[in-house]
Amino acid sequence: MFENINREYHAHRSLHTARKSTLENQLSIVTNTRTPTLEHRYRTLEGAVEHIANHVAAASPQKLQREADRLRERFRAIERELIATERAETEFAAMYFSGGHNNTKSSGDLRRILHEDHLSLLGVQTSCTIGQLADAVASILDHDDEEESLPRRAYFLEDVKIDPTKAPPPAAVVDELRVLRAESIDALRFETEFRNCRIPTVDSVSTEELRHLIRDLRSRSETISLIGKGKIPAIVDASAGRELHHKMLRIKDCMIPLSQEASKFVSSTKKKKKFFGWQLLRHSDNFRIAQSLLNVTVLFEELQRKYRGISRVGSVFIPNVLNQLCKMPLTSELKLKRHMGNENFDRAILGEANEFAREIKWRANPDQQSFFGNFMRTKPSQTLLAEIGSILVEDSPPVSNREYKVVELWIVLISCETRLREEWAKLRIVATSLPPLPKETLSFSKKRNVEDEPEILRFIHGIEKSMSLCGAAMEVSSGLGDVAARATGRPLSFLNVLGLGLEACNDEISKLRQALSVSSGHKSSSASFDDDEDGRLGKALNRKNTMLSELESSVRFTADSPILKLRNATEQLGTLSVGVETQVKRWINARHLVRNGLNGLISLDKLRKLSRSTFGKKGWSKHLNEISVREDDVRDPIPADARVLYAAIAARNAIRTAGERRRVQERGDKRVIHRLMEQKEACVKLLVAAVAKAEIRKSMTPERCAGLLRFLSAVAVAGT
User: Fold this and answer.
1) pLDDT tens column, 319-341
2) Fewer Cβ atoms within 10 Å of its own Cβ: the N or the C terminal residue of the chain?
């Protein structure tokens, strides 16, 4: 292309020279006119003389001179314009080409059409030719013959209006854009998700805290697994579960001293599990057994107290018939209470229907022998009176109230022993390891000392503490089945545990605590354990749920979203199938991606601000603020050679502009020169005529004018 332009330029110069020579030849022809024949000569001469006579002789000399001066100035103006056109053409050609016609060398300067920063980026000199510049551009762009196409890596310059005369974007700005772009890649891809994400709890978790959290969650998962296998009780009501836990702790406190007492009755560890105290606790919810144990405890105390009161009294003889009356079963169940008073106690163990005991009490208590007492008294039968008459105190019938008091005391003692054996038999039905009572009964036939206490009292001394502790434990254990039913739906399981001893109770409390630690994190739970060890798993679950709630979003997550990855990693915290350190690493990496994305929002805002201020809202700025989701699309909107590509496009635009201007200039110059040559040719003809007229008019006098007329007539005659 450039070679064609050069050839056309020199051809035009030659045409201009030829046209100039033609004009000179035409002028010479005008000034040296010849006629081929005599007739033609006369006719021409006649026209010239006539023209001179009409337009020269009759004209004003001043007017003719002015016309000649005007035409002379017009000629000079046309000459100047021709020279200026030639010079402009030469200068335009020198902008793009080294060397001119006629083998004269002249240097071009591309800085007239292209900024020197572009030339520097392209690695070319300012004095090179356009052809050399075009070669440099072609080597950089490296595309096909379609002039409008861009190489794939220069796609970001689509729709970018590049002014070749202006400098490219500064290197510092491009480098900053490249850094901001790299920092905001994830923010660009998942901007909507990151804009809706706030993770204060997730962001504040340290690596060590995360490790502890995972371990707690794994413990919780293990507990849930054990619950599913039935090895740990499942809590159906967290509130009842906490009540059950509290009750079991109280029971355990009561079982500790009872366990110490067990060593007095059993020697081996295996037999300790069959301790009668544990067997009795197994039936804590049985009201009758509990009442029997309370009766036994009260009877123990009363037997000892009343025996001490009568031990120093002499012998007492009571007929066997009367003894049997005192040993008769009660018509209703015995329900003793602690600190119920002598009267109430005696009435409870003797029964209301015992005529013998009623008569003895009347005789032993003077206050009952009043008028009103005698009125209310029921007279005993003659048979009973006869038997009462056989009673002896210190080998003589009782007469005084004090002596009947002794008889009354012995009657109560006989009834206490009788009721004790009855209640003891009831207890042995459920507590098979409970030792039997001594067969020897209390004797009244002779005076006894305290040192010679009956065998049954010695038995009581040995077992009284154990039974008292057992009674206290049963009071605390009362209602355990109901609480267990509400808490776990298994009312007997915890009662059965009590029957296995203290160690089994401790194990069950630990299992219950595990189960509660799992359930304490549920919404149904009103409060967590006060104990940090117990509330640890619940707190871990609450923290995990808080972290998950922070990772929720109103927008739909994409498949490879960092927030979705972090949420999935959070959901898997505490998984038993994955190791602790693996979970830690996976979660930390996912959080790192989210943190980078959130920080990238700041870089993204800076990127948009800087790109718009540099390139505007369209073109390169648009590509900087978008990202492809195609895996095979690796286009970079700001590659390392971005400024070089920018300069190459600018140079290509400059070359195209220069070529277009060259074609327009050539077409315009040809038309202008042709017009000027025509004007010059016409002006020369008029100028020659005007100068001739002015010179002729200067030499003409009136006599010459008259002679000219005569000469005109003569020429006309001669021509005919």
Assistant:
1) 777 777 777 878 788 888 888 88
2) C
Position 145 scores a pLDDT of 41
Q: What is the pLDDT of residues 546-585, one digit of tens each?
A: 898 888 877 778 878 898 899 999 999 988 889 999 999 9
- Three-class SS string for 653-669? HHHHHHHHHHHHHHHHH
Count of C-beta atoms within a 10 Å radius of residue 200: 8
Six token digits for residue 583: 């979970």
* C-alpha torsion 155→160→162→168, nearest 10: -70
Q: Reduced to 3 states, what is the DSSP secondary structure of residue 393?
A: strand
The model carries a pTM of 0.57
Verify that 470 and 532 share a domain, yes or no.
no
Q: Which candidate, 683, 628, 654, places its Cα nearest to that of 128?
A: 654
Average per-residue pLDDT for the chain: 77
AA identity, residue 279: Q
Residue 173: which of 606, 566, 538, 532 has the closest Cα? 606
Helical segments of 551-641, H only:
562-571, 580-615, 620-624
pLDDT at 86 over 70: no
Select from 599, 618, 637 the last residue of a domain. Answer: 618
- Rounded CA-CA distance 383/322 in Å is 11
Nearest C-alpha neighbor of 574 from the set 228, 236, 206, 224: 224
Q: Which of 445, 477, 509 is the last residue of a domain?
A: 477
pLDDT in tens, 298-314: 999 988 888 877 766 66
> Whole-angstrom Cα distance, residue 449 to residue 313?
9
The label of the residue with tokens 């509130």 reads 239
Do 300 and 201 fall within a single domain? no
Residue 614's identity, in one-letter code, is T
Q: How many structural domains comprise the chain? A: 3
Other residues' Cβ atoms within 10 Å of the Cβ of residue 480: 23
Q: Is residue 533 part of a domain?
A: yes
Q: Is residue 225 assigned to a domain?
A: yes
Contact residues for 305 (Cβ-Cβ < 8 A; gap 6+): none
Q: What does the block give as tokens for 535?
A: 């509330």
pLDDT at 97: 45
For residue 180, what are the CA distances in angstroms to 185, 356, 569, 600, 691? 9, 111, 29, 8, 81
In tens, the pLDDT along 660-691 reads: 555 555 555 566 676 777 787 888 888 787 77
> Exposed, middle or buried by CB within 10 Å (0-12, 13-18, 19+), for 24?
exposed
How many Cα atoms within 13 Å fall on the side-chain side of residue 154?
Answer: 21
Q: What is the DSSP letter of 54?
A: I
Per-residue pLDDT tens for 152-185?
Answer: 778 888 878 888 888 888 989 889 998 998 888 8
Is 226 among the domain residues? yes
For residue 628, is it within any domain?
Answer: no
Distance between CA atoms of residues 352 and 526, nearest Å? 54
Above 90 in pLDDT, residue 425? yes
Q: Where are the alpha helices (DSSP H) in 431-558?
A: 455-477, 480-488, 493-498, 502-519, 532-550
Closest CA to 494 of 165, 322, 246: 246
Range of the domain at 420: 286-477
